[in-house]
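Memo to structure team: turn this sequence into C-alpha cells by end of day. - J.P.
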Amino acid sequence: MNEITLGSFYIQSFIIGFIGLILVTVFFKLSGRTKLNEPPLAYYRFPIIGHTWSYLTDCEKLILESRKKYGETFSLYVFGQIQTVVGKETAHEVLKKDQVFNFREGYRTFLPLNFVFRQDMLAENNAKITRDYISGKFKHFINELQKNIIKAIDLYIGECVEPKIIREPRKTISDIIAIPVANIIVGEECCNNEDILEAFKNVSLLIAKLFYIPPILSFIHPWLHQQFIVIPLRFGWSQHKKVIISHIKPVIEKRLDNKKRLGDAWVAPLDILQCYLDDPEIVIDLDPNNVNYDYIADGIGHFIFATMTNTTIGTTNALYDLVEKKQYWQELYQEAQEINKQCNGNELTFNDIAKMVKLDSFVKESLRLATGIVGLSHKCIFKSYYTFANGYQIPSGRLVSLNFSDTNNDEELQGQNPTEFYAYRHLERDSPATKLERNFLTFGGGKRACPGRFLAVNEIKTFLHKVLLKYNVRTDNDEIGPKRGYLGPIPKPINVGLVFENRKEIEI
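Reply from structure team:
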C-alpha cells in the first residue's frame, strides 16, 4: 500500500469513526430522555441533525410553526442537544427563578468566556460593580460620558462640510464607543492611549464574531465546542492583556502611592479600575507588589464584552433605524433642538437626557426588534427536574431559551402591528428603555437583569442626540431593508455605507 493510498485510508477511517461517534452519542442522548411530562419534541425529518438545518437556515419559520403546532412550550433537537423553548406565558417564570434557571451557565454553553477570563468569581464581582458603581453613580459621570462621546464623534466622523462616506459604520461606531467605555473602565489616565483603545476595539469585535460560529462540535459534546470557539479569543486576549497591564500598572502604582501619602485627603477617581483597587483581596496593604494584575486585566476584558460589544451593536442598529425611518427624523430633531436650547448648548445633565422621551422610545423600539428570534438561554440547575406552572417538566441540565418572536409578535403585549417599527410605541405606554417589562426581554428580567442597561441606553441616546443636531445622514445608494436577515436565531449585522453631511438650515 503506497503512501497516498495509506493516507486516504486513514482519512476515510477517521471520517467513518467520527460519524459513528456522533451516531452513538445522539442515540444515547435521545434514548436517555427521562420519563417526565416533558414538553413535546417537535417533529423533525432528518435523524442525527434533527432541527439543526432548519434552525440555521430559517429559524423564524421553524419557531413560528412549532409554536402554532405544539403550543407555548416545546422542545427542539439542535446541535446534538435537546433545547426547550418557552413563550410569552413562561418566559418570566424562567427569568424570575434564578435559583432554578441559571443564565450564566446557559450562556457559557455557547460562548464560554470563563475559559478565557478564568477567575471564578469575576462575573459575579463585575455585576456587583456595575450595579453599585455604573448604575448607582451614573449621574456623577454623565458629563464625562457626554464629553468623550462628542470627542469621539469629532475624531471619527468630524466636520462634513462636503458629504463624507463611511463604508463600515459598525467599525466607526466601535471606534467611537471605545473612548467613553475606556474612560469608565480604566480612567482618564488611559482612555486616550491608542494601544488601550485598539485593545478594547479588537477584543470587542473578536467576541462579536464568535456569536456567529455555529456549535457543530456540540453534536458530540458541548465541551468540545466550548474549547474550540475560544481558541482565537485565547490567543488574541493573551496579547491584549499584556498591553493593558503594561499601561495600567504605572497608573495603579501612582494611585496607591497617592492614597498612602494623602490618606483621607486623597480624592479617588471615579472609574472601574479604582473599584478593583479598593478591594483588599485584589490589592493587599496598598502595596504595588501585592496587586493581582491578572485578575484586574481579566476583569477589564470581561467589562469590554459587557459594556462595549453589546452597546456597539445596539448603537449601530439604532443609527440604521434612524436613517431608514426618515418619517421620525424631523420630530426627533425638534426634540433634540429644544433640549439643547434649554441647556444653552452646554453639557447635558442626567435630567436633560431623561427629557429625550421620544428618542428614548425610538431606542427601545430599535432594541426590541433587534433581539432575534430566540435567545437568553438559561440552564436548569434545579435538583433532578423542574415542573413549570403549565405542568411540563424538564430535567436538570436542560437548556431553556426564550421565544422572543412570541413576545414581540403579540398584539396584546405590543399593541397594533407588533411586527412593525413604531417609534412611539413605548412613549404611549410611559415605558422608558431601561424599564423591565413582560413585553420587552432585551435586558432579561428578575434579579439577573442586565445591570449595565442604564449605561447602554444613555450612551445610545447621547450618541444619536449629537448626530441629530449635527448631521444629515443617508445611505450610500443602498437599501437597508426591507427585511433583515438572520443566521440561525441571530440577526445578521447590517453592512451598508452611510453618508454624513453637516446639517443645513433647511431641514429634511
